[in-house]
Amino acid sequence: MNFPVNRPRRLRRTETLRKLVQETRLHPADFIYPVFVSELVTKPEPIKSMPGVSNLPVSSVSAAAREAHQLGIQCVLLFGTPSKKDATGSESLKKDGVIQRAVHEIKSAVPDILVATDVCLCEYTDHGHCGIVRNNDVDNDVTLDVLSRQALSHAEAGADIVAPSDMMDGRVGAIREALDANGFEQTAIMSYSAKYCSAFYGPFREAVGSAPKFGDRKTYQMDPPNAREALREIEMDLVEGADIVMVKPALAYLDIIRQARDCFDVTLAAYNVSGEYAMVKQAAASGIAEEKRLTLEILTSIKRAGADIIITYHALDAAKWLQEQ
Length: 325
Description:
Blueprint: H1 15-20, E1 31-38, E2 45-46, E3 54-56, H2 58-70, E4 75-81, H3 98-109, E5 114-119, E6 133-134, E7 137-138, H4 140-157, E8 161-164, H5 171-181, E9 188-195, H6 202-208, H7 228-240, E10 244-248, H8 254-263, E11 267-272, H9 274-286, H10 291-305, E12 309-312, H11 315-324
Parallel strand pairs: 1-3, 1-4, 1-12, 4-5, 5-8, 8-9, 9-10, 10-11, 11-12
Antiparallel strand pairs: 2-3, 6-7
């Protein structure tokens, strides 16, 4: 209204000025780095649909954690693939299971990095669903007991954070009760509170072999058109004892992240998921986008929307790029 007195371009004139007035700043400490650990491999095995990401044997996870920590990343999130699967995901409960051993390996080698663990059954069941199946449907309440025991086993192995991703009703409260009853009051819960039934999960399902063998996950993961329901889910998890709440996916749900930030004064995570990662890699490989600029722009948008924590497969590259700036 007051041009030429007011000229917003004055503060865009140089890189130094732009940095001085920058409203949103990314830092490697904002990131959680997802790590796939598998009993099916004896050396790092690249995941075809996720260039730059591999399934790792337990013997390689400490090196991945160390690299992340040296770049300023404070936490890794572990996903496990067992050598065999069954209808109840029993391998997920073993003290010497793939995740339990990976947690111990990392905490022994890189004690200062935080270890979060995915708590779910989809990687461990032969049917690929996130819970115990009864009469062709996932039985919510029966699943809670298994998830609680799985989370407890992760805490016993040394996990700092357990992250239930199953979307069963009441699982945060059940896990909190199990942890507290066994002396793990300090183990944090990062809940996948608003996890949508999204088309962006395809590469992840390839990585861990978790695609459902029948049906889909629409009865337990959220319906993409719904926004108010996400706030209800987040509120329920907070009441049950969640320490960190999450929106997943991130890029297509920036509006949900923003609404969650406006409604809840708590630590908020967002998951920049495998399909979002793969699209960036495809765009860069085809020459239609510059990978560094596109990646940092996307990650900045997620933080600008309100996320405190960004779970992203770009974490290592983004941390390196940020150090160069």
